[in-house]
Design goal:
Elements (H helix, E strand, L loop, with lengths): L6 E3 L5 E4 L5 E3 L5 H15 L4 H18 L9 H13 L4 H20 L26 H9 L9 H14 L3 H5 L6 E2 L4 E5 L5 E5 L2 H21 L17 H14 L8 H14 L4 H8 L4 H4 L1 H5 L1 H11 L5
């Protein structure tokens, strides 16, 4: 097992090690908590945790390890955790960031309890900061149709590809990371479905409609032209103008630029289109379980937030149809 802390011998013979971020530290600073956190990160990496989750947890646990110093895991109580959270607030962190740090420490101690290192999880006694219930504002169906039915704006450097990106994100409800991971042979034109590699290396088939079919037909000849001119050979469906696979960062930048040019909010990003997919499907009467399957949600409760997003629509239906509302 590759722990997140590795050791090597320094020039003067002292043991050195890298912390959860890869910074070199001497053996003295390799506290019990830091070593435990490294083993925990190795454990969740082995369970196919998202690289983003591992990176975020590593940062949060490094902060926690620095705060508790040389104390042993079993000697840390809920008062220490509250002090740690207070320090994060003093540093100016938002409630969302503090809540994420607490979640990371809770996960670490849950794992330590399973491993028999501690008897209980004192972090469970600490309340999660109350977060404002902000539901993301999603574009209306009319707004999305205006983006997709018209021409791509002049700022679109690769309009055929960029239209396909919008069609896939909104038409299939996939994540940004899933979008850039699509290979050409994942597209099943005969059955109008795409094999999507989701979180935890779980795969699912997502259907697509005429919008994606048309966008694919327009884009694929240009994709071949780019690869021929750049002398590249890639399995990626979506490529940049140099023939390489698109990155999530590039997708985010392109989507925002085009969305703003087409009159949408500057807050639009790839995940906004995924939210729009779920919301609009529900508003049009789609079964919640079917939406769950297409979005790749492990729990139905995650999909059920779209019932909140669609509350305005549901109230309108109620007012129009329920006898007691008239």
């Amino acid at each position: 097992m590759n722990d997140a802390v590795t050791t090597e011998t320094g020039r003067h013979g002292e043991k050195a090690a890298t912390d959860l971020h890869g910074y070199t530290r001497t053996k003295k600073t390799q506290t019990i908590v830091r070593r435990s956190a490294a083993k925990f990160l190795s454990s969740i990496r082995g369970r196919n945790a998202s690289p983003h989750t591992i990176k975020a947890y590593a940062g949060d646990l490094e902060e926690f390890a620095a705060y508790v110093g040389s104390r042993k895991c079993r000697d840390i109580d809920h008062v220490t955790f509250r002090g740690f959270l207070s320090q994060l607030y003093e540093k100016g962190l938002s409630k969302t960031s503090v809540a994420r740090s607490l979640a990371a420490v809770r996960s670490l101690y849950r794992w330590l309890a399973v491993e028999g290192v501690v008897e209980q999880n004192p972090a469970a006694l600490v309340s999660t900061p109350k977060l404002p219930k902000k539901l993301p504002r999603v574009p209306t169906m009319e707004e999305m149709n205006s983006v997709l039915d018209g021409d791509m704006p002049e700022i679109a450097a690769f309009p055929e590809r960029d239209r396909l990106m919008f069609e896939l994100l909104y038409g299939c409800g996939i994540r940004n990371s899933e979008l850039v991971g699509i290979d050409l042979d994942d597209v099943r034109l005969s059955t109008e479905a795409i094999l999507i590699g989701g979180k935890g290396k779980k795969e699912r088939y997502v259907p697509f409609g005429d919008g994606v079919t048309s966008a694919l037909a327009a884009y694929l000849p240009f994709r071949q032209m780019v690869l021929s001119e750049s002398r590249k050979d890639t399995r990626a469906l979506l490529v940049n103008q140099r023939g390489g696979r698109l990155t999530t960062r590039s997708v985010g930048r392109i989507i925002k630029k085009i969305a703003v040019a087409k009159g949408l909010s500057p807050d639009v990003h790839p995940h906004t289109l995924r939210h729009a997919f779920g919301t609009h499907m529900l508003e049009e009467g789609a079964d919640l379980r079917a939406i769950q399957e297409m979005l790749g949600h492990e729990r139905l409760s995650t999909t059920q937030r779209y019932t909140q997003l669609s509350m305005k629509h549901l109230l309108a239906v109620y007012d129009l149809t329920h006898p007691r509302a008239k």
